[in-house]
Amino acid sequence: MRHLAKYAVLFLAALPCLGQTNPAPQTIPAARPAAQTIPATNAKALDGSAVALPAAKDARPLLLMIGFSHKSSKEFDAWNKHLLPSYLSDPKVAYYEVVELQGVPGAVKPMILHGMRRQIHGAEGARFLPIFTDEEKWKSAAGYSAPDDAYLVVCDPSGRVAWQTHGAPDDAKLSELNSALAKLATSVPR
């Protein structure tokens, strides 16, 4: 009886196809995705300085590490072991750590910012940007797929995304990152 039911299901599934001929295959041109850009953002860095992304007068490529949850801090730390020594004070690259806090309740934001200021000091404070708007646009630009990952985005000076990745650092990602930055940085005067 089970076999009969199985064949009945197969027959019913094939019923709409009976009497149809195979149409000629159609070639549908692949849609090219529009160039992704980061949202224009005015933010206040942890050291109190004003930062505009992308910066209209800055000809350097942007390297952004973006976090969308507290759990991404572990990957932030892992990436920073590689990125801070190379890019924090590199005159050819504008490096920023971006923490998206739009969904955080207003009463909690000051406590979070206070905790961040206690942990992040010196030059890194000028490169650490809490942002409170455009969460969906930032997620789109970063290629968001996993809430607890750190996202890295390399952009040209206008904010157009040239390369992106997420997750923990590894040799392949670091090599791709350095290549993407080198390619964009070649046009920057020394």
List strands and helices in order, with pairings.
Elements: H1 2-14, E1 41-44, E2 50-53, E3 62-67, H2 73-87, E4 94-100, H3 109-119, H4 123-126, E5 128-131, H5 135-142, E6 150-155, E7 161-166, H6 171-185
Parallel strand pairs: 3-4, 4-5
Antiparallel strand pairs: 1-2, 3-6, 6-7
Keywords summarizing the entry:
190 residues; 35% helix; Glutaredoxin; alpha/beta
How far apart are the first and last residues' alpha carbons, in Å?
80 Å
Main β sheet profile: 5 strands, mixed
Using only CA atoms, what is the Rg? 23 Å
Give the integer mean of the pLDDT values.
81
Strand line-up of the largest beta sheet: 5-4-3-6-7
Strand content: 15-25%
Question: What fold name stands as the CATH topology?
Answer: Glutaredoxin
Unreliably modeled segments: 1-34
Work out the number of β strands. 7
Classified in CATH, the superfamily is Glutaredoxin
Tell me the structural class: alpha/beta
The general outline is globular
What fraction, in percent, of the residue positions are helical?
A: 25-40%
Number of structurally distinct domains: 1
Condensed summary:
The protein is 35% helix and 19% strand. It has helices spanning 2-14, 73-87, 109-119, 123-126, 135-142, 171-185, and strands at 41-44, 50-53, 62-67, 94-100, 128-131, 150-155, 161-166.
